[in-house]
């Protein structure tokens, strides 16, 4: 069985598994995450199966991300959060649990919500020259 045929999100798209649908068009589906990290936690997915950001083509990405601000604004009007996390995990080591590209829209309600997301700074581990060399290496690998 192919990866797309075995994918829970593809089954949701096909209507084989129910969801609490927020938005749908020919290219994109948005629905509430079963886990509801915070009230209104919504997933936005392309209907075209792509495993992760590394498989996501520019056309699919454009269609998907074009809908994100509209859905985020609807969340803001509905639940009045004080902020919103836009989160995307790629690969199991990065926390991706469903191998179908998806964006989490997680409304934030202040200190009373239970979602914690922090970065640890390693600013002092790299000099300006190190950062310049890293940036140049990345730039060399851009596909234009």
Automatic annotation (TrEMBL):
Q: Which InterPro entries match?
A: HINT, Histidine_triad_CS, Histidine_triad_HIT, HIT-like, HIT-like_sf
Domain of life where this protein originates: Bacteria
A Pfam family (short name) is: HIT
Ranges for domain HIT come to 8-115
| Motif Histidine triad motif, residue numbers | 100-104
- CDD domains, per the entry: HINT_subgroup
Q: What is this protein called?
A: Histidine triad (HIT) family protein
Organism expressing this protein natively: Sporolactobacillus spathodeae
């Amino acid at each position: 069985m192919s990866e797309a045929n075995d994918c829970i999100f593809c089954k949701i798209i096909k209507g084989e598994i129910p969801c609490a649908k927020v938005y749908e068009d020919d290219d994109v589906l948005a629905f509430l995450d079963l886990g509801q990290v915070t009230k209104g936690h919504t997933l936005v997915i392309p209907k075209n199966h792509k495993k992760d950001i590394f498989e996501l083509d520019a056309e699919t990405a454009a269609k998907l991300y074009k809908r994100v601000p509209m859905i985020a604004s609807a969340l803001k009007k509905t639940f009045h959060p004080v902020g919103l996390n836009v989160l995307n995990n790629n690969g199991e080591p990065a926390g991706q649990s469903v191998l179908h590209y998806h964006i989490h829209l997680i409304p934030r309600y202040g200190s009373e919500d239970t979602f914690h997301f922090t970065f640890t700074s390693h600013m002092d581990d790299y000099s300006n020259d190190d950062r310049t060399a890293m940036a140049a290496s990345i730039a060399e690998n851009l596909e234009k």
